[in-house]
Task: structure prediction
Amino acid sequence: MRGEASRGTSRLMHLLEQGESVEVAGYSLSAALAQGMALADLDALQPGTHIVCLELGDESAEAVSPALSAQLQRWQSCGCRAQADVVAGSAFWQMQESRDCPDWVATSLQRLTGAPLEASS
Result:
């Protein structure tokens, strides 16, 4: 939403600036979350910051995308502890009904608690 705004995007940005939540692709986006994301500078993190990234992929994906790989390298070169995993799962934004992704939950919990990742069966 930082690029050139269309009329619809301008209206959404105005609502967010007024503290209103907006709906984007069927999901509610709060003003506080949008403002926090707008202020985030992911290239100015302090050395030693621990970063965990999960990327949704299909069963055949063995490595993260080139874009995430490049970002990981930038963070690591600045002294951050950055790691990423590809987690197999359905593209939830293309589905009409919510689906659980147990692998996403398990990987998130393991990375956030520092537990070793278990091999998938």
